[in-house]
Amino acid sequence: MLMATARQQQQQQQHGVSPPSGSSSEHKKKEIYRYSAPWPLYGMSWSVRPDRRFRIAVGSFIEDYSNKVQIVQLDEEQGHFCLRSVFDHPYPTTKIQWIPDQTGSQADLLATSGDYLRIWRVSNNEARQECLLNNNKSSEYCAPLTSFDWNETDINILGTSSIDTTCTIWELQTGQVIGRVQGNVKTQLIAHDKEVHDIAFTRAGGGRNLFASVGSDGSVRMFDLRSLEHSTILYEDPQQLPLLRLSWNKQDHNYLATFAMEKSEVIILDVRVPSVPVARLGNHRAPINGITWAPHSSCHVCTAADDHQALIWDIQQMPRPIDVPILAYSADGEINQVQWPVSQPDWIAICYKNNLEILRV
Q1: What is the C-alpha separation between 323 and 86, in angstroms, rounded?
Q2: pLDDT-flagged residues of the chain (< 70)
Q3: 76: closest CA among 15, 5, 17, 126?
Q4: Number of C-alpha atoms within 13 angstroms, CB side, residue 265?
Q5: Rounded to an integer, what distance in angstroms lies between the CA atom of residue 167 and that of residue 147?
Q6: For the purposes of burial, counting CB atoms within 10 Å of the CB of 229, is it exposed (0-12), middle (13-18) or buried (19 or more)?
Q7: Which tens digit of pLDDT belongs to each residue from 336-353?
Q8: Measured between alpha carbons, how far is 131 from 307 in angstroms, rounded to an integer?
């Protein structure tokens, strides 16, 4: 089902989450499902556990100290989302991520960033905080965390990025399903000259050691945990505009995508040819907020922006110009999050206003 036709189905189903009349087989034919939260949404993460299909965590964006995280799950028989759990989170979540455990053999953990990095254990649809990771215990001041990433190769490693120009690599002792989770600082490094906005590990080289970061100095920098005294500048924005997010290609680890603040263009980089973008994706009509690569294809990437659009691009013609996306979806508001889950590659999730939507692609 093409995303371009999902808009037509949305018009037919004004409230998305309401199941149509008829049998459960009709429910499963829907191409779009919506969950509406009681507040604006920002953080979002799709669980990869095989025993938790269509389970998504979403975080509120409220400008006070009373934010929430909800865990919702699609009831595939009834055809709508059900609220499974909700817990308090002081500041808005700058990022949410489930443990990247595709076997379901580890403890069911969820991480959130904001003022600190917090690890939560989910059991019987209840979430409790396992630990709060703070590497500045000598001061009451904490530099807010802009983002983090959970290492898929070694799930005991997480990396955080902060407005204080640093990245911190954390080492967890997750133990087994029973037992408390603890975390220690593995290393901290000054990654940029200004605020660091995002960090992401890559499987390049077949290991767990490489990650990249982007920041307000307009650069993409790559690091190796085995020699952190050196870094490689993969790209610098010609106007030194802040770079807000980065995302690694999940199938071809030579490629990554990033975009600058208030810009409507996504830049595709090839680590083998640093400094010069190999492609520019420029069909959005407003600032971009999110990027995500297809989990099952090396040449498809999805972008989302303030123009209410989620666009899927086919970049296999690089380095020839990529002029138009192959699929498009228009939401009813500015899209601030987009994910293409490893566990459900036929679906994409977006957040706008107070809505979470999943779209069949």
Answers
A1: 42
A2: 1-29, 137-141, 174-182, 206
A3: 17
A4: 12
A5: 10
A6: exposed
A7: 999 999 999 999 999 999
A8: 38
